[in-house]
Prior knowledge:
- By secondary structure, the chain is mainly alpha-helical.
- It has 4 helices and no strands.
Amino acid sequence: xxxxxxxxxxxxxxxxxxxxxxxxxxxxxxxxxxxxxxxxxxxxxxxxxxxxxxxxxxxxxxxxxxxxxxxxxxxxxxxxxxxxxxxxxxxxxxxxxxxxxxxxxxxxxxxxxxxxxxxxxxxxxxxxxxxxxx
Length: 134
């Protein structure tokens, strides 16, 4: 949610380069919406799918900020060139938040997978033990 909040705050300033089209500000708002939806999905469902979605959103956002910091990617169709070869406080905070969210979401996915696999084996074992005793 930290990344989403900062992207919403920064969006108007970054939209000035393309006021009527797809600009960096619009992409920031899309990213903020995706991050907020992923966080809500994790809170509401607590499923492997929710954790996977959150990891994809967070890590793809992190990849984008790092890519556009170090590589001058040209405009691709309606998507503008977003090369910005500097680090500033808000950018660092979003990068750290995205990395943290990505790692935590991946860990949640792995732990939930491990717990589900373990509970499935335990349930199968109990079922076998019950049917053998009957």
